[in-house]
Design brief:
Blueprint: H1 3-6, H2 17-33, E1 41-49, H3 51-56, H4 63-70, E2 78-84, E3 88-92, E4 108-113, E5 118-125, E6 128-135, E7 142-150, E8 153-162, E9 167-174, E10 193-198, E11 203-212, E12 228-230, H5 232-248
Parallel strand pairs: 6-12
Antiparallel strand pairs: 1-2, 1-11, 2-3, 3-4, 4-5, 5-6, 7-8, 8-9, 9-10, 10-11
Length: about 260
Amino acid sequence: MHPSSFNKMHQSKLFSKPFNTFLLIVILLFSIQSYAQIPEGMVRYQRTANRYQELASYEYLSKELQAKYSEGYGTEPIFTTLYINATRTRFEGWDEQDPEWISQRSDYTITRDFNNQTMQELHAVNGKTYLVVDSLRAPRWQIMSEMKEIAGHACMNAYYKDTLRHQKVIAWYALDLPLAGGPESFFGLPGLILEVNVNDGALLLTAAKILQMKLTTELDFPKKTKGKKIKEKEYMEIISKQIADNRKKLKPLLNGIIY
């Protein structure tokens, strides 16, 4: 599927091409004037995982196995949190208002420091916890040209293909929020990422609300964390091995890994 049509099923009203170009010029001029006005606060993302869509992309799984692995899964969304300021972000893979989901918080935390180009990530893979500490290396995005509004912000889309996880990713970033952060593992665009679509809706992350608030310790990586400290290259090798094992055992490709 061509990248420009990849996100079609989830797009809201898009602008016509002539108006799109005009609006882009206006927004870019406005963005230059307000470039330093990056809010300090919190972005609340709605995370919707479609297990059926995910499994349909695994050609090595029979229809019977796809049906088996989809049992008990719904598409009920959860909410996750990204704290931001002008130079740093911290993502928490749980909703602080959901007591059930919050129990998983120690296994999924990501901080990024864009001034110092560093990151710290806490991940759980197949029951083992890893603390990944390294320099920032952003995905190789291809900037596209479509625009839409998300949470009150005009956004443009970008595309990249994750060959390790076998994922096609479309992200939408805010033109007036020049911070390279985003939810989960997605970052590195000219503006804050407000929506991510993976594999035609297998995973959809959308900013539901952006709240301006004074932050104190919210951007700090949790001090009391347990996990084996490794570099990003080592973590990718662990992911690669897990994916190979899953495929060999006819399990979902990212079984035991955050999708």
